[in-house]
Amino acid sequence: MKFFVDTAETDQIAELNDLGMVDGVTTNPSLILKSGRDILEVTREIAEMVSGPVSAEVVALTADEMIAEGRKLAQIAGNIAVKVPLTWDGLKACKVLTGEGYMVNVTLCFSANQALLAAKAGATFISPFIGRLDDINLDGMDLIEDIRTIYDNYGFETQILAASIRTVNHACQAALIGADVMTAPPAVIKKMAEHPLTNAGLESFMADWAKTGQKIL
Ligand code: G3P
């Protein structure tokens, strides 16, 4: 499973990148707002830090304008994936931009039918939003499972990018189902390392080690 980091905070990306945990980065207008940075400037900086795909989202609502914005964002670096919303216009933009050789991430996906359309339009990535489905009392994992089944039924190459990951359980379940990629906030990725039994075990090892009176260094 590839790990994308869902943030525009460059210091947090750098920390995970140094550990080899970053296969790509995803941003969106809300994350750009949170960073307080200029979209072109911060996207360029991120694209220089990581070698994998860096998603940068268009903000236009018509296909022609999305295409123009997408072309501009794609000029930032060779590893930009243009992010377009899953609307009819977004699908048109996806088709054109993938035809021009750009990676396209179709975002705000909340149904298997939407994911099917994105694959037909040639999307590189489809981003089903797990947490936002959970927010309205639906199970976001059911959607990941349905998309996996449909894409495998027909051999679609569009990668399932599990997004809106809020918990470590989301990450684990998406991996078990076979999502190709997950994008998660840095805090969720770091929390995946935690287990109370690890902490308890370490504490007892440290106590016993102290009793030996030995040193390694
Ligand atoms: O990648 C999309 C993701 O950022 C949305 O997450 O937590 O705002 O639903 P969230």
Structure description:
With 217 residues, this protein is α/β, with parallel strands linked by helices. It has one domain: Alpha-Beta Barrel (TIM Barrel). It contains eleven helices and eight strands. The protein has an eight-stranded parallel beta barrel, surrounded by six helices. Strand 4, helix 5 and strand 5 form a beta-alpha-beta unit. Helix 6 packs parallel to helix 8. It is globular and about 70 Å long. The model has no long low-confidence stretch (mean pLDDT 98). SN-glycerol-3-phosphate binds next to helix 7. Pfam families: TAL_FSA. This is Probable transaldolase. It catalyses: D-sedoheptulose 7-phosphate + D-glyceraldehyde 3-phosphate = D-erythrose 4-phosphate + beta-D-fructose 6-phosphate.
Overview features:
binds SN-glycerol-3-phosphate, TIM Barrel, 8-stranded parallel beta barrel, alpha/beta, pentose shunt, single chain, 11 helices, globular, 217 residues, Aldolase_TIM
Order of helices and strands: EHEHHEHEHEHEHHEHEHH
Shape: globular
Secondary structure class reads alpha/beta
> Architecture, CATH level 2?
Alpha-Beta Barrel
Work out the radius of gyration: 20 Å
Q: Biggest sheet: strands, sense, closure?
A: 8 strands, parallel, barrel
In percent terms, what proportion of residues is strand?
Answer: 15-25%
CA-to-CA gap between the ends?
37 Å
Low-confidence stretches: none
Counted up, domains total 1
Q: Briefly, what CATH class?
A: Alpha Beta
**CATH homologous superfamily designation:** Aldolase class I
- Count of helical regions: 11
How many E-type strands?
8
User: What's the CATH topology label?
Assistant: TIM Barrel
Name every ligand kind in the structure. SN-glycerol-3-phosphate
Overall mean pLDDT score? 98
Proportion of residues in helical segments: 40-55%
Within the largest sheet, what's the order of strands?
A: 1-2-3-4-5-6-7-8
